[in-house]
Specification:
The protein is α/β, with parallel strands linked by helices. 29% of the residues lie in helices and 16% in strands. It has an eleven-stranded mixed sheet with strand order 1-8-2-3-7-4-6-5-9-10-11, sandwiched between helices. The structure holds threonylcarbamoyladenylate (TXA) and magnesium ion. Magnesium ion binds at residues 140-141, 149.
Length: 322
């Protein structure tokens, strides 16, 4: 069920949350499946709806006015600098938790992941919840476990067999999940690449930033599993010069149509700008997934830091089929 984000519908969503239910929540990154982060049963419903292992920790989403003190015991000055620069926005910080952050949120870790989303509908709902005494919403991406994150309300509704009350916030502007920065050590560690890059984190903190993506094989960071974010159609990375070998039933997704591509192969053009590419990525793959192609062959994206988020998602999607 898709609902326009009128004040009445936002109030109704807050009531569903307060009653221990779950809702589909638009954010600027991807849509989330949101529940009261202090209600173990409600968070349990998120896990069962997603089919997600219950030891995977969730991000707690905060209203801009909420502050981190309810959930995080301390924040080093570099974390405060990051929050000042990038909240509200596509940045998640991992901090030492308070007793308010239950094991069912943190996956029994001593840390909690916090994010203040920039989307006005998310902010309106978080504010309504805060006024009702709810300090944050746990909201993993609103997809079944291992699948691609939804970037429209329709994607959310299509994803689950049971109806989910979903607020329509339009197509997500960022299109890939938030950058996650572990702020529990002496230096920032990137746990997941996103729109805020390693360079952005280095610039704001003035510190050396560690790239822990791919070095952390803990299943506790579900996005860190090699096989993740995949369409159902086999996806492979294929350089333009290798595209001549593709079957006529494949589609090639790239910047420019390669001269080597067989005439019979479909071609789908993607933007050469990383921000625009990220915005379209999941919707494009979901759409191609419905078109009956035998393979989705994707041109590798540039090796630069600006492309790290997209490169990481494509690499994981391809790893699912490798
Ligand atoms: O952009 C986003 O972050 C979206 C939107 C809805 O806000 N949410 C999202 O949630 O991507 P999810 O659950 O799909 O991914 C949360 C990630 C997982 O990789 C999880 O393991 C990691 O955050 N995470 C959560 N708590 C953590 C913690 N205490 N330490 C390390 N990683 C943590
Ligand atoms: Mg996810």
């Amino acid at each position: 069920m898709i609902f326009s984000p009128t004040p009445n519908n936002i109030a109704q969503a807050a009531q569903i949350i307060a009653a221990g239910g779950i809702i589909g929540l638009p954010t600027e990154t991807v849509y989330g499946l949101a529940a009261d982060a202090s209600n173990a049963d409600a968070v349990g419903l998120v896990y069962t709806t997603k089919g997600r292992p219950s030891d995977h920790p969730l991000i707690v989403h905060l209203a801009p006015q909420a502050g981190t003190l309810h959930w995080a015991a301390t924040a080093p000055s570099f974390a405060r600098d990051l929050i000042k620069s990038f909240w509200p926005g596509p940045l998640t910080v991992v901090l030492p938790r308070t007793a308010h952050a239950g094991d069912f949120i943190t996956g029994r870790q001593k840390t909690v992941a916090l994010r203040c989303p920039a989307h006005p509908v998310a902010q309106a709902l978080l504010q309504a919840c805060l006024e009702a005494g709810i300090h944050g919403l746990a909201a993993p991406s609103a997809n079944r476990f291992g699948r691609m994150s939804p970037t429209t309300a329709q994607h959310v509704v299509d994803e689950f067999d049971t109806p989910v009350f979903t607020l329509d916030g339009g197509a997500c502007e960022v299109g890939i999940e938030s950058t996650i920065v572990d702020c529990t050590g002496a230096m920032p560690r990137i746990l997941r690449h996103g729109a805020i890059t390693l360079d952005d984190v280095a610039r704001v903190t003035g510190l050396v930033v560690l790239d822990a993506v791919g070095h952390n094989n803990s299943p506790r960071v579900s996005g860190s599993l090699a096989a993740h974010y995949a369409p159902a159609t086999p996806l492979l990375l294929c350089a333009a010069q290798d595209s001549g070998k593709l079957a006529s039933t494949a589609v090639y997704v790239g910047f420019d149509k390669p001269v080597q591509l067989p005439m019979s192969c479909a071609f789908h053009a993607m933007p050469s700008d990383a921000t625009l590419y990220a915005r379209q990525l999941y919707a494009t793959l979901r759409n191609l997934d419905t078109m009956g192609y035998s393979q989705i062959a994707v041109q590798p994206v540039p090796p630069s830091i600006a492309w790290a988020g997209v490169r990481d998602r494509l690499g994981r999607a391809a790893a699912t089929f490798a």
